[in-house]
Design a protein that fits this description.
This protein is mainly beta. About 5% of the residues lie in helices and about 45% in strands. It is built from four helices and 20 strands. The strands form three sheets. The chain has an eight-stranded antiparallel beta barrel with strand order 9-10-11-12-13-16-17-20. Strands 3, 4, 6, 7 and 8 form a five-stranded antiparallel beta sheet that branches. A hairpin with a 5-residue loop joins strand 14 and strand 15.
Length: about 280
């Protein structure tokens, strides 16, 4: 955590030229610029932590700031390894007394904090605080949108980029996937309920389960279109499951077809492989 200061030595050309005899101590010291004073920092406190918003509020006490301090900086540093080699700094308005700032934290990990003040004369630091930031609930880790590549079973090899939107219910028991299907998305706006499904969220097992409302069809609410999901033997299922990665940075949906109930055939069928089969993985964005 050392701040390396540049000390300017004001030595004349005549001094450098005279190298046959040792210089007196007072002559050498006269060539140095006077050191800049450095304020002190103390009483670092973690006053608030919000793991869902990934922030912490820090306070500390600063003393010794005077007018004319060169390159004065005051603030806080945070990191995850305690060495502060890869730390993040948040600077505040330099003033004596109590300083406060909001810093970013990593939930589910030990975070390290230190208050600091620095001038050209060096730096001073408070004691380091190590704080175990609680992990956030699974539902709070979910992204608001996930995107990836779909492949049509009927138009094999042609990639279709698509993003769906995700909304967790207020009681955190259900998840609605909006703008669910690329084909239906060509006909309805992303926010309309005509292209969405709501399923049960299982935070322990990282899944969202969707149950058919009109077996074996998961009705879109758009014309006669419905989703059909089948097992390996081709049997239509009454529910399908979207799985979520443990870091919530990706979701995986099964291959499925968009079925015309009235016409008795498929509008489209999607998979994650180039032949239009297999699960589809979408990444958080």
């Amino acid at each position: 955590m050392k701040r390396i200061s540049i000390i300017l030595m004001m030595l004349s050309a005549a001094v450098f030229a005279s190298c046959n005899k040792a210089l007196e101590k007072d002559v050498v010291e006269a060539g140095f610029a006077p050191a800049q004073p450095v304020p002190t920092v103390s009483n670092l406190v973690v006053s608030e932590v919000n793991e869902v918003e990934k922030i912490a509020v820090l306070t500390a006490t600063v003393e010794g700031i005077t007018s004319g301090m060169d390159s004065l900086e005051v603030g806080f540093m945070s990191c995850l390894d305690g060495t502060f080699q890869n730390s993040t700094a948040v600077l505040v308005n330099p003033e004596n007394g109590t300083i406060t700032a909001t810093v970013s934290v990593m939930p589910g990990a030990k975070n390290y904090f230190v208050a600091m003040a620095a001038t050209l004369g060096g730096a001073s630091y408070s004691d380091v605080i190590a704080y175990d930031v609680p992990d956030i609930p699974m539902y709070a880790k979910l992204a608001k949108s996930y995107a990836g590549t779909y492949y049509s079973y009927f138009d094999a090899g042609v990639p279709v980029a698509h993003a769906l939107n995700l909304l967790v219910s207020d009681d955190h028991t259900e998840v609605t996937l909006y703008h669910f299907d690329p084909f239906i998305g060509n006909y309805v706006a992303p926010g309309l309920e005509a292209n969405c499904f709501t399923g049960k969220l299982d935070q322990e097992n990282y899944t969202i389960t969707f149950t058919t409302d009109t077996p074996p069809f998961f009705m879109f609410g758009f014309a006669d279109a419905a989703v059909v999901v089948t097992d390996a033997a081709g049997n239509a299922l009454s529910e399908f499951v979207v799985t979520i990665s443990k870091d919530c940075q990706s979701i995986t949906i099964p291959e499925y077809g968009v079925y015309s109930v009235n016409q008795g055939g498929y509008y489209e069928a999607w998979g994650g492989n180039e032949d239009g089969t297999g699960t589809i993985t979408l990444k958080a964005r």
